[in-house]
């Protein structure tokens, strides 16, 4: 399995690993088709006293009871694993040695869909979670920066796997910014641990 650290420049060390061809094209195309059948929702988020639509569609699958609350406002309740998502989860675990109990999907319908600077530090994931992120469809810019530092840009390819390693969420922020370029749909699947739910 080809694995690279995200950047070869010796001055930039990121707590993440990138596997550009984790899925081959045929596997990635098939998974993309599967993901189009998932139960995508338009959730609402409350920020600065206002309620607004989350600027992307979301879905969640996982172990029973592993609810996921983010930004103290959006509660995601997992549906049971599909066979394809469970198979993918096990394959990521076999490669990375990390275990996952939920997968949250993000669907970016156009360049106007996005996710702003944030870290994923919800206590339901436990301390120092590893988060594994599969990208499908259109390539979008992904940015990551140390808290208080400068961002580094890169592009997550169809079929790639990005693993944000334990500790990454405490030291770094990441985002997928809006773009005015014409881009078609991108689907992202983030596999995460969870400390609750039924075992
Ligand atoms: O779409 C991506 O690559 C990033 C998704 C993300 O940051 C998140 O789900 O927290």
UniProtKB/TrEMBL annotation:
Under the heading InterPro entries, the entry gives: AlkB-like, AlkB-like_sf, ALKBH3, Oxoglu/Fe-dep_dioxygenase_dom
UniProt GO BP: DNA alkylation repair
For this protein, the record's Pfam families field holds: 2OG-FeII_Oxy_2
Q: Which Gene3D superfamilies match?
A: Alpha-ketoglutarate-dependent dioxygenase AlkB-like
Superkingdom to which the source organism belongs: Bacteria
Domain (Fe2OG dioxygenase): residue spans on this chain: 97-195
Q: Which UniProt keywords apply?
A: Dioxygenase, Oxidoreductase
Molecular-function GO terms, alphabetical:
dioxygenase activity
Q: What is this protein called?
A: Alkylated DNA repair dioxygenase AlkB
What organism does the record attribute this protein to? Nostoc flagelliforme CCNUN1
């Amino acid at each position: 399995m080809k694995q690279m650290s995200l950047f070869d420049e010796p001055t930039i060390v990121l707590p993440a690993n990138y596997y550009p061809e984790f899925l081959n094209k045929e596997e990635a195309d098939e998974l993309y088709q599967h993901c189009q059948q998932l139960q995508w929702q338009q959730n609402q988020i409350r920020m600065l006293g206002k309620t607004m639509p989350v600027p992307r569609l979301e879905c969640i699958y996982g172990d029973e009871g592993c609810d996921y609350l983010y930004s103290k406002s959006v509660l995601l309740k997992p549906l049971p694993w599909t066979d394809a998502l469970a198979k993918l989860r096990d394959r990521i675990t076999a490669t990375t040695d990390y275990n996952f109990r939920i997968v949250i999907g993000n669907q970016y319908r156009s360049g106007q869909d996005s996710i702003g600077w944030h870290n994923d530090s919800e206590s339901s994931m436990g301390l120092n979670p590893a988060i594994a992120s599969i990208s499908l469809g259109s390539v979008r810019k992904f940015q990551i920066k140390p808290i208080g530092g400068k961002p580094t840009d890169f592009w997550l390819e169809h079929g790639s796997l990005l693993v944000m390693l334990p500790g990454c969420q405490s030291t770094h922020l990441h985002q997928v910014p809006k773009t005015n370029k014409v881009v078609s749909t991108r689907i992202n699947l983030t596999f995460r641990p969870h400390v609750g739910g039924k075992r």
